[in-house]
Every structure is written in structure tokens, then in C-alpha cells.
């Protein structure tokens, strides 16, 4: 008897699922305490991750924000935020790509997989 197995998902879908699932775990571990489980942020202190326009327009700088942090004034969803987010420079590029895949595909965002090569090529914070 011979068994043949096939997957209903192609490799890109499996890759996305891996990044998303690992990103969710990393988000819960490193980001959720401040940005909340639903990405809503914390009032006027911590910006939400639900502003899809901000997330899309700043997609090139998102890895820098995660790795290096950010300090100073930032406008998100038309509201000013002036605080400091510590960076997490201990995360590997693949982990940053995973957490960004989760964040940019959650909370109303739908941007697809955030490739690891984009993390190494991040451009300035603003």
C-alpha cells in the first residue's frame, strides 16, 4: 500500500503561516504589554498599531523602530505621541520579520509577509 500526501497550501502560504505564528508569540512576549493584545496602544502614552495608513506608509522604517526603538514626537492616527519605546536589539532579523508579519497583518492591517531581507535594509525611523 502506498500513501500519498499533499498539502492544500503552497510554500509561500506555509512560510507566511510560520512567520505569523512565530510573530504572534514574539508580540505577546515583547510588545503586548504596552501595545495591548488588540494593538490599541495605551491612551495618549503608547500609539496604537491599528492605524493601517501609518503602518503601510512607514513599513520601511518599522524594523528600525523594533530594533532601535524610538524617542520623541510621532503622529499616529492623527494623534501626537511623545514618549520613548525601547528597542530590542537582541531579536534576530528573522524574529523582527516575524513580529512585523504578525503586526502588519493584524489589527486591521493586511500587508502580507514581511521578508527578513527588509529588516536588514530598514530605512530611517521617520
UniProtKB/TrEMBL annotation:
Keywords carried by this UniProt record: Heme, Iron, Metal-binding
Keyword Heme in annotation: yes
Pfam families with a match to the protein in the record: Cytochrom_C
Domain Cytochrome c intervals: 18-107
Record InterPro entries: Cyt_c-like_dom, Cyt_c-like_dom_sf, Cytochrome_c-type_DH
PROSITE patterns: CYTC (PS51007)
GO molecular function, one term: electron transfer activity
Keyword DNA repair: no
PANTHER family for the chain: BLL4482 PROTEIN, BLL4482 PROTEIN-RELATED
Name under which the protein is recorded: C-type cytochrome
Protein species of origin: Hufsiella ginkgonis
Higher taxonomy: Bacteria, Pseudomonadati, Bacteroidota, Sphingobacteriia, Sphingobacteriales
Amino acid at each position: 500500500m502506498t500513501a500519498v500526501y499533499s498539502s492544500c497550501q503552497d510554500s509561500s502560504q506555509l512560510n507566511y503561516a510560520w512567520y505569523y505564528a512565530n510573530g504572534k508569540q514574539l508580540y505577546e512576549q515583547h510588545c503586548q504589554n504596552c501595545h495591548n493584545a488588540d494593538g490599541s496602544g495605551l491612551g495618549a502614552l503608547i500609539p496604537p498599531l491599528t492605524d493601517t495608513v501609518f503602518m503601510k506608509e512607514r513599513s520601511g522604517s518599522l524594523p528600525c523602530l523594533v530594533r532601535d526603538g524610538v524617542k520623541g514626537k510621532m503622529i499616529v492616527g492623527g494623534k501626537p505621541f511623545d514618549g520613548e519605546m525601547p528597542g530590542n536589539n537582541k531579536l534576530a532579523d528573522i524574529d523582527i520579520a516575524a513580529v512585523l508579519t504578525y503586526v502588519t497583518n493584524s489589527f486591521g492591517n493586511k500587508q502580507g509577509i514581511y521578508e527578513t531581507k527588509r529588516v536588514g535594509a530598514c530605512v530611517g525611523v521617520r
